[in-house]
Task: inverse folding
């Protein structure tokens, strides 16, 4: 979707947030946020430390339900739903801190991600029912496919604890893709990752996006955001300052002022 004028805003909305508000003891962490994620887009969410990005995502995904405002995906309201319900509805997320099981293999980690989605229980597993075996085969095939996609197939049987930091980020991504989500929210997917690996991760996300998954990506790495995203939302003090194409964002004086104190260009 890169290239066309304001494509993300013109395309059908998958996620819509209106007037989202969340306070902590009088601190307005999110202060009337509006946000649109177009179906099929890779949308970036940038803004200074503490401007409310993670809090917003916590509210959108049901991990924090003490907010006011409208959150809807594909025209269905999400506000008030539990995180598991939202995940089953096709909205998956990662966290700023990595969550992988170091003492399980890479393949096992990806398969474990599927456990709460495939309808099998410990009883099915113990009895090795036909349903369990069928599901197990499908899960195994899908896990291999996704490990191939994120470039971790050669490491399938290594312990996850042996992976580099960047590889663990990719493993988390493969795990959340197991349930074929419509929308994936990534919180700082390349924080602490070296620049070469960050650009590899951008290409992998693009490849996943081309298979039909929509992304909302929080990130401080501006070159990564500018390379990858169709639409960028700039947040400042709990609200949307502007949403536009990378070109529009890069040239907006208010963005330079709010985000970088007017000190530099946004991206190159
Ligand atoms: N559980 C909490 N209790 C109290 N204050 C909180 C809590 N969570 C977030 N905040 C405050 O809300 C504001 C927004 O925090 P948030 O983590 O959403 O920012 P962010 O944009 O994700 O920042 P960063 O880029 O550093 O990750 C900050 O002032 C933060 O201190
Ligand atoms: Mg954050």
Result:
């Amino acid at each position: 979707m890169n290239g066309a004028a304001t494509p993300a805003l013109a395309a059908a909305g998958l996620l819509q947030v209106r007037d989202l508000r969340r306070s902590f003891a009088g601190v307005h962490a999110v202060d009337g946020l509006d946000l649109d994620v177009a179906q099929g887009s890779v949308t970036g969410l940038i803004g200074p430390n503490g401007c409310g990005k993670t809090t917003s995502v916590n509210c959108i995904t049901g991990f924090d339900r003490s907010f006011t405002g409208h959150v809807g995906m594909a025209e269905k309201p999400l506000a008030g739903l539990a995180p598991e319900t939202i995940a089953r509805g096709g909205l998956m997320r990662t966290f700023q801190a990595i969550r992988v099981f170091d003492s399980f293999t890479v393949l096992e980690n990806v398969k474990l991600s599927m456990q709460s989605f495939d309808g099998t229980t410990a009883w099915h597993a113990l009895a090795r029912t036909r349903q369990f075996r069928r599901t197990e085969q499908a899960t195994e095939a899908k896990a291999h496919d996704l490990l191939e996609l994120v470039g971790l197939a050669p490491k399938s049987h290594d312990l996850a604890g042996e992976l580099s930091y960047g590889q663990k980020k990719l493993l988390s991504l493969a795990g959340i893709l197991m349930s074929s989500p419509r929308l994936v929210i990534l919180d700082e997917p390349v924080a602490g990752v070296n620049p070469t690996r960050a650009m590899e991760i951008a290409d992998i996300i693009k490849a996943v996006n081309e298979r039909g998954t929509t992304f909302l990506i929080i990130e401080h790495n501006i070159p990564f955001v500018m390379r990858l995203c169709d639409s960028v939302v700039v947040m400042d003090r709990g609200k949307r300052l502007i949403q536009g194409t990378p070109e529009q964002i890069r040239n907006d004086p208010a963005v330079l002022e709010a985000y970088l104190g007017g000190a530099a260009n946004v991206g190159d």
About this structure: Confidence is low (pLDDT under 50) at residues 1-10. The CA atoms of residues 40 and 214 lie 5 Å apart.
